[in-house]
């Protein structure tokens, strides 16, 4: 039987911790950097490796640079060239950045949640269809919410300390907008079965919670137009997301997403996608099927390439952010269809200048220059 090639273990010092990395004895510095990327969140071109006072060159083998088993190597990270939420230090974990919630000073601040949502509030909700419960320091949704049932069209319970979304949420049959941003909701305490009953739901925001995964039942929210799930601990999106044919906006930045299902190409109505600060190394080719896509944010990921048909088929794409990825402007210009894409975004920029709207006057190329490599 063929024996495995010999390996060595290198002790990499970074951000106050020591990371043992096993590599083939014949590996190059570039190969070591690729292994360090998921362990540190620092992109290979943002890594400077130093051993015994010498900077290790990418093309050189470790053995030629006198890096042997047990050698200590220092990693110096360039600012901005990272994926996810930033470099992993000894004080950080794989979870998303915790969000500190602050409640506004309100006339009901010292009252109990059940007092806040009293009969007067319930009567108002039935008339207006809007239950505004944000910034009340609530631990749970008040019972009066369920009593109002089909009368409520908008429920905003953002910036509270709510831990559970019970099955009773299914009683809100007329709900169009559900805002639960910045709470303490985790996978075990959210009734997706109840949420799946909300067939009129257009806007769902679960950003800044403690979600690790999304279930297949997400795909049953057939009317959904906007989904916001940023700043959680998600590592993937369910295949069933492709069933959301009317989804226009997907905001999923600052998670731990490593791969995307090819079914995302079936979300034919998508116009804006934000996947910044995740752990993506590639996008599925199915992105080329998103013909209505206008805005795509991919900053701070480990991406090395784009889907081959992205520029050629996504003819409405005008905003693309690839800063902090392995894709530089030189690489971007080699993608088929880049010239047409570049012309569209420059026309948009010129219109902003002409009307003095939303522009500083500086044109953003959309990616980093090659000179940011060391």
Structural class: alpha/beta
Low-confidence stretches: 93-110
Tell me the strand percentage band.
Answer: 5-15%
For the largest sheet, list the strands in their spatial order.
6-7-8-9-10-11-12-13-14
Q: Percent helix among the residues?
A: 10-25%
Count of helical stretches: 8
Written as H for each helix and E for each strand, in order along the chain, the element string is EEHEEEHHEHEEHEEEEEHEHH
| pLDDT averaged residue by residue | 86
Instruction: Identify the overall geometry.
Output: globular
Rg: 24 Å
How far apart are the termini? 42 Å
Task: Please give the number of β-strands.
Answer: 14
Profile the largest sheet.
9 strands, parallel
Pfam family, one: LRR_8
Keywords: Leucine-rich repeat, Repeat
Function: Leucine-rich repeat protein that likely mediates protein interactions, possibly in the context of signal transduction.
Organism: Urochloa decumbens
Would you kindly provide a brief summary of this structure?
This protein has 374 residues and is α/β, with parallel strands linked by helices.
Fold and architecture overview:
Belongs to the SHOC2 family. InterPro entries: Leu-rich_rpt, Leu-rich_rpt_typical-subtyp, LRR_dom_sf, LRR_domain-containing, Ubiquitin-like_dom, Ubiquitin-like_domsf. Leucine-rich repeat protein that likely mediates protein interactions, possibly in the context of signal transduction. 17% of the residues lie in helices and 15% in strands. By secondary structure, it is an alpha/beta fold. A 9-stranded parallel β-sheet has the order 6-7-8-9-10-11-12-13-14. The chain has a 5-stranded mixed β-sheet with strand order 2-1-5-3-4, covered by helices on one side. Mean pLDDT is 86; it is low at 93-110.
């Amino acid at each position: 039987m063929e024996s495995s090639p010999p390996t060595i273990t290198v002790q990499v010092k970074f951000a106050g911790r020591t990371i043992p990395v096993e590599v083939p004895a014949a590996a190059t510095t570039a190969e070591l950097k690729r292994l360090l990327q998921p362990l540190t969140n620092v992109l290979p071109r943002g890594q400077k490796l130093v051993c015994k006072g010498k900077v290790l060159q990418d093309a050189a083998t470790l053995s030629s640079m006198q890096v042997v088993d047990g050698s200590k190597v220092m990693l110096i990270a360039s600012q901005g060239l990272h994926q996810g939420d930033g470099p992993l230090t000894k004080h950080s974990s794989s979870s998303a950045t915790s969000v500190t919630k602050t409640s506004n000073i309100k006339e009901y601040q010292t009252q109990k949640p059940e007092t806040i949502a009293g009969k007067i509030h319930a009567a108002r909700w039935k008339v207006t269809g809007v239950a505004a419960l944000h910034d009340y320091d609530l631990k749970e949704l008040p019972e009066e919410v369920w009593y109002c049932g089909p009368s409520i069209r908008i429920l905003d319970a953002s910036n509270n300390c709510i831990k559970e979304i019970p099955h009773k949420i299914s009683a809100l049959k007329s709900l169009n907008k559900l805002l639960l941003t910045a709470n303490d909701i985790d996978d075990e305490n959210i009734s997706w079965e109840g949420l799946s009953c909300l067939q009129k739901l257009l806007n769902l925001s679960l950003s800044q919670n403690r979600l690790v995964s999304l279930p297949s039942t997400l795909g049953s929210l057939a009317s959904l137009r906007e989904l916001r799930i940023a700043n959680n601990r998600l590592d993937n999106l369910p295949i069933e997301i492709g069933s959301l044919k009317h989804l226009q906006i997907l905001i999923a930045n600052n998670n731990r997403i490593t791969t995307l299902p090819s079914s995302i190409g079936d979300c034919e109505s998508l116009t804006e996608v934000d996947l910044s600060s995740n752990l993506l190394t590639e996008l599925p080719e199915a992105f080329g099927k998103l013909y209505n896509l206008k805005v795509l944010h991919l900053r701070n990921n480990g991406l090395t390439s784009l889907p081959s048909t992205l520029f050629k088929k996504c003819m409405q794409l005008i905003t693309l952010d690839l800063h902090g990825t392995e894709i530089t402007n030189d690489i971007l210009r080699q993608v088929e269809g880049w010239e047409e894409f570049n012309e569209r975004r420059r026309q948009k920029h010129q219109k902003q200048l002409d009307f003095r709207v939303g522009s500083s006057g500086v044109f953003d190329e959309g990616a980093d220059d090659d000179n940011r490599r060391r």
